[in-house]
Every structure is written in structure tokens, then in C-alpha cells.
Amino acid sequence: SRRTDVVAELRRQLMATEEEDNLSYPPLNVTTGNDTCILFYASNFSLKANNSVLIDLTNATFLTRNVDISASECSDSNTTLSLKYTKPVNGISSLEIRFLMTNKFYEGSARKWFTLDSVEIVQDGEKFAKFNVASISAPAEYSFHCQLVGTSNLYPARLIPSNEAKNWDVFISELQIQGFNIINNQFSYASDCTGFFTPGIWMGLVTSIILLWILTYGIHMIMQLTTNSRFDDPKGPALSVPQTE
Questions:
Q1: Residue limits of the V-type proton ATPase subunit S1/VOA1 transmembrane domain (predicted)?
Q2: Is residue 125 part of a domain?
Q3: Torsion (CA) 201, 204, 207, 209 in degrees, nearest 10
């Protein structure tokens, strides 16, 4: 098992609490010399080719380690995680998946951020597919975590296909990746792709505001009610109230 500290999304940094994850396998690590330069984990890592052929790479990547990572590259500014598989399914002799990450300094935040720029798929050494990546970034000292990453429009972190990539579907569950500033072979604090204000929270807030406004208006109207200062006596003459009152 591994230990990770999870903090909220990039724009909200909460105090991290260390917690033990009940994982059945450790993350995949790429080393240069004695130092780990890339950490990669997913509870489900699958591809679908031509909307028909499902390729489950989870076991080959994290359990049996039947994957070649020798082509991976690490540097202070650019990192490439290369995953090569031999005959992952019938009909495909070789499959390579590349995760290309960069580390840049941004003046607006006065700090370095790492981003996953693109994901590439090379089938049989010839067919090339590229995905542009949206919303996968974190401070350079952090790792990145997301519950769902893939080509579906419903995923919070999406891989946008271009050229031949339209023939592929990617499904990654519980993705956590870090390509820079790894200490003690462990994931650093994680920036999560799920925002603090989810659609459900926004709906709850708006509904609460509307109900609070209705309650306030009702209390205000009740407070405007006045009672009669004089009452009619059935034994005496009828009470006459001038219109001015």
C-alpha cells in the first residue's frame, strides 16, 4: 500500500491529513539512477479500439508489471511516461501509451506548475493517435488526482481526441500521477480535479437562498400586521371607526 496526502483542488488548499489508502498494489514508478522521477497509479486503466475491442491494461501495468517503461524520460522541465505492451489483445502486436508532462513557471501565481499536455497512443509502431488534455495540472511540488479521466464528456478531466484518436476511447479511474519533485518514492500532496463547489452544492446553495428569502419576506409581512386598539361592545352602541383610522 502507499500513503498519500490529499488536499483540495488547485484553487482551494485545505490542511492535508495523512491517510492510509486500502490499495492492493503500489503505483508504477520510473527511476533514474536511485531516484524516482515518475509515479503513476490507477484503479482501472482501460482502452477501447474502434468502439469494440476492450483492452484492460490494469493488471499488466500494476500487478504483473508486464510493461516496458524504458523509453520514459525525465528532466526538470519535461517528463514523458512511456508504457509499452506486447500483444495486449489479439490483433494488436504492440501498443505504446505516452503521457507527456511539462513543468513551467507562471508569473501570475509566482510558482511552477506541472501540466499533463497530451496523451499519445502508438499501435504496432505505425498508427499514431493523440489526445489533448484539459484540466490536468497541479503545483510542481504536488501530484494530481482525479476520480475519472477519459474521453467521455461526463468526466471531470477529459482527453480530447484529434486525428486517429477518434477511434479510441480511454477510461482511467482514480488516476494519480506525478512527474516532478518526488520525495522518498511517495506521492506528494494531491491536487484533486473535483472543485469545491460542485453542481450539487451550487443547487443546494441557490435553493437555500430562495427559501431564506421567502422566509424573510413572510416574517416581514407578519410583522406589518396590526391588531385593533378598540373593540365593539355588544351591550353598548356600535363602534364607529373613521376611515382615517
A1: 195-233
A2: yes
A3: -70
